Amino acid sequence: MMNRIFLAVVLTLSLAPLAPAKAPDEQKVQDRLKNAGEVMHEILNIPDDIPQNLLDKARCVVVLPSVLKAAFVVGGSYGRGVLICRTGPHFEGSWGAPAMYALEGGSIGFQIGGEATDFVILVMNDRGANSLLHSKVKLGGDASAAAGPVGRTASADTDAYMRAEMLTYSRARGAFAGVSLEGSSLRPDGDANAELYGKGVTAGKIITEHAFHAPAEADGLIHALDHATPKLVP
Predict the structure, then answer these.
(1) Chain segment 145-181, per-residue pLDDT in tens
(2) How far apart are CA 49 and CA 153, in angstroms?
């Protein structure tokens, strides 16, 4: 009798539908999206964050959460994060589906200590946005870059800020400030984008084509930016 009961239990469990397990890489990419949303939300809610007029003019935002100095070794490892842009041919619409990106370069390691550092990069014009969609971009070389000013009402009309295609920030040990990332490079993270959207999908397609919908894990990031800067201000 006991053998029959045991056999019945085994058969029942073996036939029960199993929830598909996420691959480790897919889970990491989704966690990165969630973390990027949390970082953006927290930064936008500190007293001296990014000036409002810069947020309103930004075409895209790059968020790289929890970058560790230990990740940067000879030969160039990288921090991983997210690029999100406004929709439309001139990046003037609402915030769209994010693409995954990587930050590379030896100079990054000198900007951060033993604790994790979050980086935020504002992309300020169409040229800067378009340059990111198709190839690796060297900050300060292929695209002009500057450490961004902080404070919601800070003046951002100096020549350095007006000319820069990208404005860069960091947050470490609770301190948020502009930081120079010149010499570092941004590039699409092809493997991570394939995990989210499928093989052969490029960052350019994700950002510019309406066929791609943001994963649920990106809701926090999109909501934070929609709330802070719902439309482009020329």
Answers:
(1) 999 999 876 665 565 566 899 999 999 888 899 998 8
(2) 9
Residue 56 resides in a domain: yes
Q: How far apart are CA 199 and CA 184, in angstroms?
A: 27
Q: Which residue has the higher pLDDT, 115 or 43?
A: 43
Strands (E), the chain: 60-67, 78-85, 99-104, 117-123, 137-138, 145-147, 166-172, 175-178, 185-188
Taking the C-alpha atoms of residue 41 and residue 185, their distance in angstroms, rounded to an integer, is: 25
pTM equals 0.85
Could you tell me if residue 122 is inside a domain? yes
Residue 162, burial from CB neighbour count under 10 angstroms (0-12, 13-18, 19+): exposed
Q: What is the largest CA-CA distance in the chain?
A: 86
For range 180-196, the mean pLDDT = 93
Tokens of 22: 């996420």
How many distinct structural domains can be found in the chain?
1
Tokens of 187: 């590039």
